[in-house]
Amino acid sequence: MAEHKVTGRCLCGDIRYEYRGTPVKILHCHCESCRRHASSPITTFVCVTRDSLRYTRGEPARYQSSPGVTRTHCGRCGAPMTYESDRNRNQVDLYVGTLDDPATAAPVYHAHVAEQLPWFETADMLPRYWRGKAGNAPLRHGPRGQD
What we know:
Blueprint: E1 5-9, E2 16-20, E3 25-29, H1 32-38, E4 43-49, E5 53-57, E6 61-66, E7 69-73, E8 80-85, E9 91-95, E10 109-111, E11 127-128, E12 140-141
Parallel strand pairs: 3-10
Antiparallel strand pairs: 1-2, 2-5, 3-4, 4-9, 6-7, 7-8, 8-9, 11-12
């Protein structure tokens, strides 16, 4: 049986991609640099293995946003596409809004809530991690004030 194919694109369609298989993880990120890249109070990523991702039309523009971190965007419409880190070279984090069907990608946790904006909250009961999830216990489950 063939692995399920998931497709996505930038706003203008100059960049198209597909990945096959199950994502490594799906998460919300509250860090400042992700917020700035997306111009949004929160970002949501579908993280896939590098070898499962293939660009089917065009290539995104790349830039180093901080030491060891590369971000990509469409050179025409400017839509943010990915986050890549030297700490995890085999993983590419795709912005969920670039998926052709983002409703199929349900996040399972929040990361970097230490940097969460004070006026923004989500109502889900997902675990919240002060920084990253790896090796850490969640700070809480659900919105602030619910614990």
